[in-house]
Amino acid sequence: MSTSTDTPISEPKRWDLEPESEYRFELDPGTSLAIKLVEGQAEVFGFELAEAKVYLFGSECKAAVYTWKGCAIQVTGVPSTEYVSNETPMRIYANLHIALEQMRVRALRQVRGSPVPSQEANARSDPPRVLVVGPEHSGKTTICKILTNYAVRAGQGWTPFLVNVDPGEGGWAAPGTVSVAPVKGPIPTASSANPLGTAATNAPMSLASNTLLPLAYWYGHPQTKRNPLLMDRMTRNLGENMNDRFELDPEGRASGLIVDTPSSYASGPSANDHRHKLINACIDAFKINVIVVVGHEKLNVEMQRSYGANLMVVKIPKSGGVVELDSSYRDRVTNYQLHAYFYGQVIKPPAGITNGSLGGESLTDLVLSPSSTVINFNDIIIYRIGSDAMAPSDALPVGARRTVSEMQPVVVDPASPGSRLLNAVLALLSPQASDESERYDEEVLDLTLVGFLIITNIDITTKKMTVLAPNRGSFTGRTAVVGSFEWQEQ
Ligand SMILES: Nc1ncnc2c1ncn2[C@@H]1O[C@H](COP(=O)(O)OP(=O)(O)OP(=O)(O)O)[C@@H](O)[C@H]1O
């Protein structure tokens, strides 16, 4: 593995891009890249680059600098792959954006009671609520980002909601979550740790200008098939929150929402029950009216058959630039995400670069310092949800029935040898209802996520454990849930 410190200063390389072409690159672990727009217009997945500003990329980022009108860029650093492509589906993505934009305009017109042009008298006035589905490596997340960025750049003051129901990806916080954030400014792409932009954590002293404030629930596992019932519940919880918000803000509702889904929603036999139930949960929860199918004929036919009668199903091609990501890459990205959650976004610029920015933010603004705190076992109540806490069926005595359902929160005792809490990622939840009479069995499933902790040491004799947290604070009386993610400093 080479690092930017042992690579010699590489001469900046100039790339002249023709209109509607893109410069694609992939980075190896430990390397970084600096890109400066020298002239013309350019964007990274819809995020416009400012001329003469140096943008840094790291943590194995794979991306493309696209230009509509032609540009020259200067690239410093040595990517593992770099090339220019003139064949991109960006025109089709832009046309899709224009169609969504027209829906937003009609929706806002209706909210404001503005006159409707006669040629649009029969057009529906629903804001766009888009579900993006597609197989693995089809570029779903990238398309969601491009469509969101084009909406916020339209100059109409839109604040679309970006929803992430792919728990394998992490979105804004860490993997294992399902979340939504209103997006006010374009989302940069700089690192695989923040594919959807940077969220405000508990810790930063100064908030980056395009920081997002997501609402998240903790599912706790990378794969949706592990506990589909729980995924269903979390998806519906997110939807309910959004609908409450939309009721209070009808103008904000006009901006619409875009939902990024996991590839498990698109693969496997069409009779796969859990897949269809989860797609249905999204359609109900977010009142989806447009399904975008990315580059998959069979899935498109299936979606047309299942949903085409009631909502619009649009097929768009996959970009040839999308990179196939293997499971070891995904594991490294999980590590980058958790590291970035606790320590901030630390990217070492390539040799020779001193003035780089990450998505337009200064590097020092994005560095955090977590703290380790020793707490008593009974300071926080830790739960594990359902099946994860259950013994395998064949381990039960003959004739015995399960007593724990998939959705039941089970208290985990840190002192028990099988607690599996060491190095576990804990999701810290918002407080339970203070009024005992309002509490219910599965309340823990409906509490939103406020942050993460890692248990770095457990001392059974003193009944104390050490937790790594983004900031120093008291955890007494707090509720946490453990899933299947672990993390260790490396
Ligand atoms: N045009 C492009 N040029 C270079 N890299 C790209 C391009 N489009 C997407 N990528 C990269 O390819 C990778 C996969 O893309 P993306 O995450 O959007 O796919 P996905 O379908 O959401 O993946 P998953 O299978 O995880 O759901 C990402 O690292 C992304 O930045």
UniProtKB/TrEMBL annotation:
Any GO MF annotation of the entry: ATP binding
Q: What residue stretches are annotated with the Clp1 P-loop domain? A: 134-344
Q: Which GO terms describe its cellular component?
A: mRNA cleavage factor complex
Give the signal peptide, or none.
none
Keywords associated with the record: ATP-binding, mRNA processing, Nucleotide-binding, Nucleus
The similarity annotation says: Belongs to the Clp1 family. Clp1 subfamily.
State the name under which the record lists this protein.
Answer: Polynucleotide 5'-hydroxyl-kinase GRC3
Name the gene behind this protein.
CLP1
